[in-house]
Structures are given as C-alpha cells and as structure tokens.
Amino acid sequence: MQISDKVSIVTGAASGIGRATALELVTQGVKGIALVDLSESPLHALADEINQIAGRNVALPLVGDVTDEDFRAQTFDEATRHFGVVQIVVPAAGIFRDRLAVKIDRSSGEADIYPVEAFRQVLEVNLIHPVYWAMEMIARIATDRSSRGLKKWLPEQKVQGTVIFIGSVSSQGNRGQVSYASTKAGLEGAASTLMKEAMFHGVRTGVIHPGFVDTPLLQNMPDGYVEEHILPDTQLGRLIRPEEIADAICFMIRNSAVSGQLWADAGWHPAAA
C-alpha cells in the first residue's frame, strides 16, 4: 500500500519509535497524521517540526490517554474531519513494569507475587489499546466502504488500510517481564486474527518485533543494565535506533506481500540463564 496521500494515526508519538515513525511517514508523503501522546510539549514540538518539513499543516497533535474509549473515537473523528478516512494506524504507545513474577524475601522467606494492578496497567496500554485502535480503523473503513455500496474487498482493489503493531523480542519470554512479554505475545494472536477478519474490508495487519531500541523507555533501566545484560547478547553490539524501526514499519506498510511478523532484533539472542 502506498503511504503517500494516506491519513495516519500514531500513538506514543512524542518519543521513541512513535516519534521516529511519525517523521518517516511524513517523509514518505502522508496526507495527514494525527499525533497522539500524553506528553503535551514534545507532542506539539513534533507537530511543528513535521509541518515545517512538509511545508504545510499535515500534523494534528492530540493529547490524551490511549486507553480512554471516548478519546480514541474523538481522535478518529478529528483526523477524518481534517484529512479524510484513516488508513494507517501505528499504535506505538507502550509501558513496562518489570520485576520478577515471584520474589522471595530473603529475611522472611515469604513469596511476593507480581502486583495484579501493575499487570492490568501494562495489559491496558500494551495490548488492549493497540487492538482497539486497530479495530476502530477497521470499523471506520468498513463503514466508509458500505456507504459507497462496496461489500467484500476484492484482490484487484487497492489495499484499504494497514495496522502495524509494535511487538517485542520479549514476546518469546524474557526474565523479569512477565506482564510486558505477555502483552507483546498477545499482539501476535490479535494481529493474526484481525488479518483473517479484516481482509474482508481490505485491511492488513502485522507485527514488528524490535529488539532493544534506544528510547526513553529503555533509558529508564538501572545504570549499567544495558551494557551488562543486553549488548553482550546483541550481534551488532549496540542498541537499535528508533529510525531503523520506523524504516522497517514503513516497509511493512508499503509492501503488501509482507504479512504476519517481522523481527528487527539486531541479532539479539539472550544467553541461557
């Protein structure tokens, strides 16, 4: 699917993979892009930067919580009103709350289980949010097609829309990431299911699984963690740049033959425990 002249939404757009993806989409000629994040100042700064790059107002910054259903609907309404039907969604907002699933207190010998509220929070942001933003786009494309008298999508028609989910190499399991890994693995099943259903309306879904990317999320790890636990198991010997993931995401959008999952792990293979 061509990126040029399409309308897109990127969540988590103020930093990291989301920011890099928004900039790459604009470089490749999107008609309009709704930028979504909770961080107001960097989001508006990105919108200004994008509009300057494009030479026109193509960026629509919208500050809000991606887990809020009303905000999601309002975002699609605003994007459609400004630019047209949304055809690209990259739900890149994400969090992690890392710790061991079960911790033993050395002094008391008591077991402490991962807090359920923390798990629910990660689930809401990392799994439920991206799936529902994807379904929102699918529903609106289906409604638009129906209003024009179109029914089942046919191969000779152009692809109507694309969703790229942000997975992770941790979807295969990673020590200390029981909640994060669960949500990223869940995206695989969601994407596969939506692909089977949404192609009726001409919409593709896929998952990119980045390795360890140099983002604010990773920078919050304890001092020395990256150098000690990540880089030794990475073939490239460095963190992945957000721009490299953004380039891969746009490749997945452009090339309709690329379905399912794409791994962009920089050769990361964790050592056996």
Care to give the gist of this entry?
With 273 residues, the protein is α/β, with parallel strands linked by helices.
The count of domains is 1
Please count the helical segments: 8
Rg from C-alpha positions? 19 Å
> How many β-strands, per DSSP?
9
User: How far is the first residue's CA from the last residue's CA?
Assistant: 42 Å
SSE succession: EHEHEHEEEHEHEHHHE
| Average pLDDT, all residues | 93
Query: Uncertain spans, ≥5 residues at pLDDT below 50?
Result: none
Oligomer: single chain
Tell me, what is the CATH class?
Answer: Alpha Beta
* Secondary-structure-derived class: alpha/beta
Biggest β-sheet: count, sense, barrel? Answer: 7 strands, parallel
Overall 3D form = globular
Tags for this entry?
single chain; 273 residues; alpha/beta; Rossmann fold; seven-stranded parallel β-sheet; two-stranded antiparallel ribbon; 9 strands
Account of the protein in words:
Helices cover 43% and strands 16% of the residues. With 273 residues, it is an alpha/beta fold. The mean pLDDT is 93. It is built from eight helices and nine strands. The protein has a single domain, classed as Rossmann fold (3-Layer(aba) Sandwich), CATH 3.40.50. A hairpin with a 6-residue loop joins β5 and β6.
